[in-house]
Amino acid sequence: MSFNSILECLFGTWEREPIPSRSLHSLKAVASNIVTTILTAEDPYLLHKQLKEDITTSGWSDMLARATLQGLEHAINAGAAMARLAADAAARSKDAAIDFTTNHPILVTLIALGILALLMPPVLEILGFGELGPIEGSFAAAWQRQFAGEVPKKALFGYFQRLGMKWHWTI
Q: Which of 39, 120, 114 is nearest to 75 (CA)?
């Protein structure tokens, strides 16, 4: 019995386990699968489970780690390029909107009024102008308290409350 045999019994074998042989294509496929899992997983538990499964079935190696890192680097670079393209598109959209607004002010005003008409019922409800009167604890209830029980005839409060009672939000 040699000294190395005793050391191997105590600390395990010093030799590395052989790396499973696989083609470069399958290595890239596994790395691509790992990168896709990392980038698309929403649940950390499922991410861990899927990564463990991929690595267990294929075996982890230095080449697989490098291929995975290269895949992540390509994904980050592609994301940066997409961010640049999105920023350029947003800038062009803003310029086009300003140009359209300048050239067609009446049409833009009509569009804005249409959007306001669509948003008015939920805004009135959020402010507290309900179907049965001001909603308790809301902005409308606080505003009504300022009138001490007698709302003037042409007050804006009365107009908003009338709209809240008649104009319902339907989708």
A: 39
Whole-angstrom Cα distance, residue 127 to residue 130? Answer: 9
What is the SS3 string spanning 97-154?
Answer: HHHHHHHCHHHHHHHHHHHHHHHHHHHHHHHCEECCEECCCCHHHHHHHCCCCCCCCC
Using a 10 angstrom Cβ sphere, with 0-12 exposed, 13-18 middle and 19 or more buried, the burial of residue 62 is: exposed
Distances (CA, A) of 137 to 3, 51, 128, 151, 161: 84, 51, 8, 18, 15
Question: Of 103, 89, 19, which is closest to residue 58 (Cα–Cα)?
Answer: 19
Q: Where are the domains of the chain?
A: 1-103, 105-171
Residue 154: per-residue pLDDT:
86
pLDDT at residue 106 in the model: 95
Instruction: List pLDDT tens digits, range 83-122.
Output: 888 888 999 999 999 999 999 999 999 999 999 888 888 8
